[in-house]
Structure formats: C-alpha cells, structure tokens
Structure prediction request, 163 residues.
Amino acid sequence: MNSNSLTQARYLAKTIKHLQNRMLEQHEPSSFEGSGLAAELTTTQLSTLITVRDHHEMTLKEIAETTSVSPPSASTMVDKMVEAGALSREHSKIDRREVRVSISPQGEKAVEALEAHLLGSLIDLLNGIGPKYANMWCEVYEAVEQYMDETEKRDVVQQGTSY
Prediction:
C-alpha cells in the first residue's frame, strides 16, 4: 500500500465515521413515538430489525450469520427485541425445533420512523452539497458497490475450489 492510498483510506474512514455519527446523533428517541415499542433499541438491534424485515422471516442461525454475532448472542438479542415488541418469534410449522423470527407491526413502525429520519438527514446533506457533488457521490458508490459485488463473487468461487 502506498502512502497516498493510506492517507486516502484514513480520510475516508474518518469521514464515513463522522457521517455515521452525525446521522445517529440527530436521531432522537422521540422518532419512535407512536411505534408502540416498549423500549429504545440499540444501533445493532435496529440493524437486525431492518435485516429481518428485509428477509421477511429468518431463523436464529440466519440472524447470527447475517449480523456476524454468535448464535447465543443472536438469541439473547432476539429475546430482548421480542420483549420490547419489535420482533415476533414462533416455531416452524415444518420443524418444531426451528424458531422463525419476523418483524412485528411495532417493529415495522420503528423501522419506518428510523428510515424517514435517516433519509431526511441524507436529503439535507445532498441538498447541502448540491446536485453536482450528489451525482458524483452516487457514481462513486455505484463503482464501490460493483467492485464489492465482483470481489464477493470471486471469493465465493475461490472458496468453492479450495475444498
């Protein structure tokens, strides 16, 4: 890695972290008012909630793999989120040993409130930097996404041939 790449990587990491912090700091507990949740959710729990919503229904094992936490940690987190009213869990009709987790109506409302807030923050930022830089930013992210997709596919192929 050359020194210019290292400098750029440090700058990007710092800026991305600043952006994340700014967006999360602007999120207030009142954003969840009306969602019916019994407790505030952590960032990890919110991320898990969005993941479960996007997959419609998941097993504890799938949640652990997707969120990169241990199965016991995923189980504990899901228990807390069920208790808070954000998730629902039930045994599979096919295999009673398998627990299926889905988002509750209250969890859906919480995700909608969070997304509205985060998208509003991004819209403010995009308006602030103007259309020229907003378009450039999207183009850069498209290139990043394409690169990541290609490397993930390559990694899967390499893993498949290493057995």
The chain has one domain: 14-161. The radius of gyration is 19 Å. The CA atoms of residues 35 and 109 lie 5 Å apart.
